[in-house]
Amino acid sequence: MVTAPAVRHIALVAHDNKKVELLRWAEFNRGTLSRHALFSTGTTGTMLEFELGLKVHRFLSGPVGGDQQIGAKIAEGGIDTLIFFWDPLEPQPHDPDVKALLRIATVWNVPMACNVATADLIISSPLLEDPEYANERPDLSPRSWDGTRPV
Questions:
Q1: Using CA atoms, how far apart are residues 38 and 73, in angstroms rounded to an integer?
Q2: What are phi and psi for residue 141, nearest 5 degrees?
Q3: Could you give the strand order of the β-sheet that contains 9-14, starting from the edge strand earlier in sequence?
Q4: Are 106 and 112 in contact (CB under 8 A)?
Q5: Active-site residue numbers?
Q6: pTM, whole model, 2 decimals?
């Protein structure tokens, strides 16, 4: 019996100096990306839709809340992969939001690529489209003073 490949919810984000790099990567992987639900911050999402014809759910631009919106979606379980080409050499006015997004993806055990090499490994992994694979989300429910879950 053949099962349908999994549809992942992939967020694609890039800082200004990394947008062309993300666009090239996405163009090379357009076939794979087109089979998944794509999310992005405003400017990056517009670029991916216009240049590559990919259907992308766009949030606000990163500096005005888009990074936080993607982080919230990760916390809700609505995004399960993050491709975030951030620029570690360029100061960002919304650096706290960038760090918060990286932190929330790590907290919720979301596969995350911050460069082309890691993005290549994620997108080419057979687990990406394996319907049996689901990354384990940690149990962060409140606990009582003795470490057990409330009843």
A1: 12
A2: -65, 155
A3: 56-58, 37-40, 9-14, 81-85, 112-113
A4: yes
A5: 67
A6: 0.89
